[in-house]
Amino acid sequence: MNARLRHASGFTLIEVLITVFVAGIGLLAVAGLQAMSKKFNYDAVQRTSASVLAQSMVESMRTNPGYLDFYLTSDASSAASAVDCGAAGAKCAPAELAAYDLYRWSQSLAGAEARIDGDNAGGLVDPTGCIQKGSVSGLYTVAVAWRGITGIAPPANDDPADDPARNPCGLNLHRYDDPREAGEDDRMRRVIVLDAFVADPNAP
Description:
Elements: H1 3-8, H2 13-62, H3 94-110, E1 115-116, E2 119-120, E3 128-133, E4 139-147, E5 189-197
Antiparallel strand pairs: 1-2, 3-4, 4-5
Region (Disordered): 153-185
Pfam family, one: Tt1218-like
Domain Type IV pilin Tt1218-like: 33-102
């Protein structure tokens, strides 16, 4: 084989550069997909946690049905309890139990029940817990809002009235404003809404 053929069988610098460029584009695409996967996984974990916490409050209300009005709140993060109803031998009146349930719920929402190095572990990011009376007797709405990673547009005028995004839980609290946007927009808010019937023995 002569020198000319040997030279032609090798790679030129341009071919190497093209290969590096194509490989770089592929690696950037993989990195982008990984970042998106992490965001979706994070949102899924937060949403699942919020659903579990909303259901746990419904169960608490069902164990104390005669005092359901004591559970109503527009922001459970400010809940406090004068009596630790979970302590051994504690004797709580139903109203005290309702206050304790709300306080314990607020701690669970914030992940304060488990701590690592003094910081809350688990829970939701900037949570807001709300409990509202429904439109019919015995119907209650438990809503949980938290802060997402990215901003989303508010619901459109033609979106259905029962769209969870229309629930007021967490609105206008300055917790969910998008720092990249001017003003108060709540674009970072995520919310789940759970409607449940709770039998009230005091209902007419």
